[in-house]
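Quick bug: Sugar ABC transporter substrate-binding protein output formatted oddly.
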Amino acid sequence: MSRLSRALKIRTVMAAAVAVGLVGTAAGCGGTSGSGAANGNGVTEITLWTWQSTISDFVTAFEKTHPNIKVKVTNAGANEDEYMQLTNALNAGRGIPDLVYLDFNAVHQFAISDQLRSVNDYGFKSIRGDFTKAAQNNVTVNGQPYGLPISSGPMVMFYNQDVLAKAGVNEAPTTWDEYREAAEKIAAMPGSAHITNDTGDGGFISSMLWQAGAKPFSVDGTTVGVDFGGRNVKKFTGMWQSMLDSKLIDTSTTGWTDDWWRKLDDGSIATMLTGAWMVSSMQKNLTRTKGSWRVTTMPQYSTGEHANGENGGGALALPKGSDNAKAQAAYEFAEWFAHGDGVQVNLEQGGLPPLNSVLSDSDWLNEKDPFFGGQATHQVIAEASKDVTTDFEYLPYMAYANSIAVDSIGQVYHGKTTLQKALVQWGDALKTYGQQEGFTVK
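Here's what came back:
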């Protein structure tokens, strides 16, 4: 194995003692390389790692029509927690799952390290064109696809219509100038409401840069580029910094906390700029404001533009080192989930499969959602999906990049630096890391 392949195993984000402990955990719950494909009854058992809370619905439906395959699910933790366990299992050469859910940025990280199987080897080539161009791009590294896309996150703006109306904003903002005007009106109301919240999450900042047309990262094999000095980067940082300086954004409330959900539900936070997958979470966590929320496409920098980025989404991938004989069965489940009958299960749960057939289905498009006051939200989501540009690139160590974003970007929200300076600092750290990991950095 090359130095680059060895180095790209996220080893710098965990302490050695923790890593050793997690190897044991992973080994106890994953498939073991070299075990037989089928048991004495002709049933192949595959191990799937995912943090999806409703995965049992998919497994039950799949096993009813595929009695020769049994899916054993392990929750190895969400996002970086799962990636850390997967890294340690790969390093140890045991406990490697047959199938794993990865955020799109992590697909790139593990693929560039030569740790994933190309799904073209199992039949993906024949269905690849059925997925959106953005989804295809998100699982492709150096021309090869390394996962089956099962979820997508075109950015949209969720807004509390009642709060905006109370502030004198009768139409959802369509440009960032209008968004700022709305923010000023909301801030002028009695109380402590803000138009949105932001505490410096690296993933969110990357998505906002994507939507602004910025291309801070470039990848060409093992050569990477990091540049936060571009005009479109400054287009975003200038707009967002101005709002931060004017205290129009809640910088004290962290997303996904109880306090965050409370503020969304009592009107203290009026909009969310995030992936369209947020619909199902809102329905589960917001009760007082049911019927008040609406969704629209992202504000634009100029009237009439249609530019968008993604926030979230991911794929089912096949790690190398798992049982070769089980890989085809693992792919069979992944294809069923992403392209077969599992798509309907996904839709019933409020998921957003990145399939052209879904985004153009009239019944789906015209479905009205009572939570959003009877709005046909899918029409907005489909439009947002079509607006996603496909030339944004992830670093091959994006999961690591997001994990250290707080060291630089996080300081902006304590008034210690500006967003533009923080991005340059983040970029310098990412360049240094890339060089240490064996990349050619430009």
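Actually, after a second look the formatting is fine. The first helix runs from residue 3 to 7. Closing.
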